Amino acid sequence: MTRTILSSRSSAYLGAVLLLVLATGMIQQVQAQIGGAAVVFLMIEPDSRSAGMGNAGVALSDNANSIFWNPAALAHQQGTEAALTHSNWLPEFNAGLFYEYLVAKHHIPNWGTVGAHVTYLFLGEHEYRDAQNTPLGTFKSYDLAAGVSYGFNVSDNFALGTGVRLIYSSLARVDVGAQKTNPGVSAGFDLAGLYTTPRIGLGSMDLTYRVGFNLANMGPKIQYSDRGQADPIPTNLRIGHAITLDLDEYNSLSFAMDANKMLVRQNVAEICDNPEDPEDCTREYSSDPFYQAIFSSWSPIEVNTGTQDDPKFESLSPFQQLTIGVGAEYWYNQLFAMRTGYFYEDPNNGNRQFLTFGAGLRYNIVGVDFSYIYALEEDHPLSNTMRFSLLINFAQ
């Protein structure tokens, strides 16, 4: 799909970023979102299994997709496995956007489990024009990340994990005068942990409890032109727990819950050329480096709940900045699964609220998972989003 981008480098950049904001479902006031974080495609949940459970997976993921949810969970996995997830993104817009995630892991006896992944989000083909509305050409927008992860057991019940990824973001290639817009490049680092209890007998059932965390995408800011316009990457903390009940030899039931927070701190300064004239003031945005934002992002933030012409700023507490995902999963004989879940985000922090549904099949070395989003808001951009995942376990 070809889109018309307006008359400058900044307009082309803004158009691509708007698509990216929509594609991740983080639909906030545009001014606040653009100043908040770039490359938010890193937060798109790739695993159709957990996506069918309300995006809850930090304590439950048990396959190669653990690289995203919790690399510490790799430590408990054996053998070699590869997985591929595909999704036509924002199908309601018919914009030709799509998302791909390729991941693989391999266990090394006495060392732990290593993994690698590639993430790709295609944001369409765009046309840009000059101030006289003359066509100057077209460009394609996309985001790409590739990295490696490692999980290892500290004890029988506790595991640690880490990962690193390179990030390449090509939103626009438009030059205005001496100013150039280039692809942005950055890197992110992960640190994760997972605690698993021994199996607990409850009459005829067995119970396993897990609790985990994943501090992901710690890294330097990314820039597309000059250093003054650099934006942070989405450093993110995900914590969660899960309970699995083995009801009998063939039936099991799991419940999971995740809480998620972007650790990005945006600072706002009001610059007034004439202090006596409030209309002569402008708001300038900056952000803390990731190593400060890990702590400073837990303070309240100010968000615009009005419009650009009629702004209305309200305080958003740290708890209102969390997203919550809960889900349930039923397995029969580890061959067939059914899943459902619910995802919640505060109305002033994106307002994503949807139900999820999913199913899974396992046969021999092959696994297939499917998930579907049912948005609770009419005409929501994420409505009818489907993900399909294919797993191949070479250990069978």
Question: Would you write up a description of this structure?
Answer:
- The protein has one domain: monomeric porin ompg (Porin, Beta Barrel), CATH 2.40.160.
- The chain is mainly beta.
- The protein is 9% helix and 52% strand.
- Strand 7 and strand 8 form a beta hairpin.
- It has a 14-stranded antiparallel beta barrel. A two-stranded antiparallel ribbon has the order 7-8. A two-stranded antiparallel ribbon has the order 14-15.
Condensed summary:
The chain has 396 residues and is mostly beta strands. The chain has helices spanning 9-23, 30-36, 48-51, 66-69, 290-296, and strands at 2-5, 80-89, 97-108, 112-129, 135-153, 158-170, 175-176, 179-180, 184-196, 200-202, 205-218, 236-246, 251-262, 266-272, 281-287, 301-304, 313-316, 323-332, 336-345, 353-363, 366-375, 386-393.
For the residues shown, what is the average pLDDT? 83
The helix/strand class is: mainly beta
The CATH superfamily label reads: monomeric porin ompg
Would you count the extended β strands for me? 22
Which fold name fills CATH's third level, the topology? Porin
Q: What is the string of SSEs from the N terminus onward? A: EHHHHEEEEEEEEEEEEEEHEEEEEEE
Which stretches are low in confidence, meaning pLDDT under 50 for 5 or more residues running? 1-35
Structurally, how many domains make up the residues? 1
Strand content: over 45%
Helix content: under 10%
Tally of alpha and pi helices: 5
Question: Strands of the biggest beta sheet: in what spatial order?
Answer: 2-3-4-5-6-9-11-12-13-18-19-20-21-22
Q: If classified by CATH, what would the architecture be? A: Beta Barrel
Radius of gyration, whole Å: 22 Å
Major sheet characteristics: 14 strands, antiparallel, barrel
- What overall form do the CA principal axes indicate? globular
- The termini sit apart by 43 Å
Assigned CATH class: Mainly Beta
